[in-house]
Amino acid sequence: MKNFKIEFSPKRIVKWVIYGILGILFLTFIIKVATFEASYYSEKEGSERAVAAGSTVSQEDLIEIPPTDDEVYEYTVAPDHPRYLTVSKLGIRNARILSMGVNNSGELDTPRNIFDVGWYNKSGLPGQGGTMLIDGHNGGPHVHGVFKDLPSLAEGDLIAVERGDGAIYNYEVVENVSVLLSEADAYMSTALKSPVYGEESITLISCTGEWSQQQGTYLSRQFVRAVLAED
After folding, report:
1. Which H or E run contains 187?
2. I need a surface site. Which of 50, 68, 171, 206 has the fewest CB within 10 A?
3. CA–CA distance, 158 with 135 (Å, rounded to integer)
4. Domain coordinates of the chain in residue numbers?
5. Which CATH number describes the domain made up of 59-228?
6. How confident is the model at residue 11, as a pLDDT?
7. pLDDT for position 201
8. Closest residue by Cα to residue 119 from 165, 69, 164
9. Residue 31 confidence class, pLDDT cut points 50, 70, 90
10. 158 contact partners, CB below 8 Å, separation of at least 6
11. β-strands 158-163, 131-136: how paired?
């Protein structure tokens, strides 16, 4: 039987060395990226951010340009539906109210434009004795949204809703609470009820609190509840 001898040529050795060096460099790069991401998420945890979190609209699809005066003026809805929202204390004047449902996960949809608000179309209608549920964006990637200052509303402040037929209904704030994200779903049953039994009401909702980079959302939700004001 012949003996087989393996010979290593200098060229082959150099090639293996180069491959080995490239492999080590690639592995080092992967480790550094993973370490950076872990450090970045840890550093950002709890920091504030302008982006609207908890939104059912992806950040890439958000519109951060306010609608023009003509777009607002020309916006129409059914006569008995909510058309515009005005909250003078927050500088909100005639924000368009868009009819919204829920997505496949049962989450309340939100408008694409961060200056619009959404009316849950299974909730109440203005002037009909129920409770309207309206949500809005805290902000977008670069700009504060319509409900950025929602936590500053206090008892007695006014919220106005104009219907499609031009009728205006004023609601007086009764309570303004921040609820942890983990408890927000359970609180929705309360949000859909009037804070004063038997009185027509409106509930405004937005994201608030600390931003969680790892979860990609704010860690709280703001709920403002108001009842129809006396004439």
Report:
1. helix 181-191
2. 68
3. 17
4. 1-44, 59-228
5. 2.40.260.10
6. 58
7. 98
8. 164
9. very low
10. 87, 88, 89, 170, 171, 172, 173, 226, 229
11. unpaired
